Amino acid sequence: MRSSRSLSSDEVGGGRGGVIGPHPAPDIATSHDDYARRFSGEVGRWFLERQKKIVLELLAPFGTCTILEVGGGHAQLTQGFVGAGHKVTVQGSDASCAARLRRIYSERDVPFLLGPLEHMPVGDRAFDVVVTVRTMAHVDDPPAFLAECARVARRAVLFDYPSRRSVNRFADVFFDAKQSIERDTRRYQSFSDRDVAQWMAKAGFRPQRSIRQFFWPMAIHRFHKSEPVAGALEKVPELLGLTGALGSPVLALYVR
């Protein structure tokens, strides 16, 4: 495995309960209000809208389907899934991961599945599609995590990851500067696209389509805090084909 890795227990997350490997499961941190505040303001909303648009575009060929959103207690994509007519279940590693979800949806509308990321308590191919965002970069064993997502998926797995073919190659060098801007950022792993494809091939899945979200580091957009500036900064590399070649994170769709 050729991923860039430098994690510690205080960087991966916190909370009470679920553990993946020696660290608290990363979705515990992302399911709480402190994490949601990272996406407040016009730039934060722009991040989420861009992500939602790409995810729904990638899922469109499947029609309405059953979705397991792994680590989705942050509820960033749930509204888009429900609005598109999908039947969504959200998985979380700890009971606390359901708190934000329950403020928006009842258990009847969006069920919550409690269980560890590496051993989800459902049978093989239980859902049409498994979706997981902002999780893979923080787990201890990414190949095992993807294999478990693949086990549960009947048709496809949709996930995001920071690509090493981007400025993420220098993430460790610029981490202190990034932290000075974002304050509550976490270290993360970056991956080669070839490794990801090999892991998914081993699980019986092939790449269908992938879209790279941003050319510039997200911390730059959080620094200037302007949606129009973010759009303008991203437009030029997108038109030049740089985002498609070197952008990150990658939203990748793999099919069985």
Can you walk through the features of this model?
It is built from twelve helices and nine strands. The strands form two sheets. It has a seven-stranded mixed β-sheet. 38% of the residues lie in helices and 20% in strands. It is globular and about 45 Å long. The protein has a single domain, classed as Rossmann fold. It is of the alpha/beta class.
Question: How much of the sequence is in beta strands?
Answer: 15-25%
CATH architecture identity: 3-Layer(aba) Sandwich
Q: State the total count of DSSP E strands.
A: 9
Radius of gyration: 17 Å
- Overall geometry: globular
Annotated CATH homologous superfamily: Vaccinia Virus protein VP39
- Poorly predicted regions are 1-21, 170-182
- CATH fold call: Rossmann fold
Q: Structural class, judged by helices and strands? A: alpha/beta
Biggest sheet architecture: 7 strands, mixed
The count of domains is 1
Distance between the termini: 22 Å
CATH class: Alpha Beta
Specify the number of helices: 12
Rounded average pLDDT: 85
* Helix-residue proportion: 25-40%
Task: Give the SSE order as H and E letters.
Answer: HEEHHHEHEHEEHEHHEHHHE
Strands of the biggest beta sheet: in what spatial order?
5-4-3-6-7-9-8
Concise synopsis of the structure shown:
The chain has 256 residues and is an alpha/beta fold.
Topology at a glance:
Blueprint: H1 9-12, E1 19-20, E2 23-24, H2 26-30, H3 33-36, H4 41-59, E3 66-70, H5 78-83, E4 87-92, H6 99-104, E5 112-114, E6 127-132, H7 142-152, E7 153-161, H8 175-182, H9 193-202, E8 206-214, H10 218-224, H11 227-239, H12 242-246, E9 248-255
Parallel strand pairs: 3-4, 3-6, 4-5, 6-7
Antiparallel strand pairs: 1-2, 7-9, 8-9
